[in-house]
């Protein structure tokens, strides 16, 4: 008999999403670091269990829905790290801040719309506690030529 999913994981499943089984680091850094009740999460690219899925740069020819799904994939990797650190996604009392990076050429105007894919998932899972401050910028390149990278700070109960 398997254990019942946590309320947040049940909401995730209701959205048709699941957490990856792993989110390996690409370099010499920790996936998270806790200070008091704050959990600082390292940036996660749009990969699934270590395999990049969406590649940059963003352009007018790349479908916005696909780009938002790339950012949502980053958020799923962040949620994996939260669960690894806290033991349960239900321990998140507030999503404090997201930082989003979109691989795009100079002058690309819609980087913030791409990062909405990550923001919208945190809000869908945590409601008002998922609303956060955010930075969303375009950059010339990301690790593994990824389309998107997102980092986060969350508060744990």
Q: Would you give an account of this structure?
A:
This protein has 157 residues and is an alpha+beta fold. It has a single domain (7-14, 31-156), classed as RutC-like (60s Ribosomal Protein L30, Chain: A, 2-Layer Sandwich), CATH 3.30.1330. It is 30% helix and 28% strand. The chain has helices spanning 7-14, 64-86, 111-126; strands at residues 32-35, 38-45, 47-48, 51-52, 92-103, 133-139, 148-156. A 5-stranded mixed beta sheet has the order 1-2-7-5-6. Helix 2 crosses helix 3. It is globular, with a radius of gyration of 15 Å. The two termini are 28 Å apart. The mean pLDDT is 96.
What would you say about this model in short?
The chain is α+β, with helices and mostly antiparallel strands and 157 residues long. The protein contains three helices and seven strands, in the order H-E-E-E-E-H-E-H-E-E.
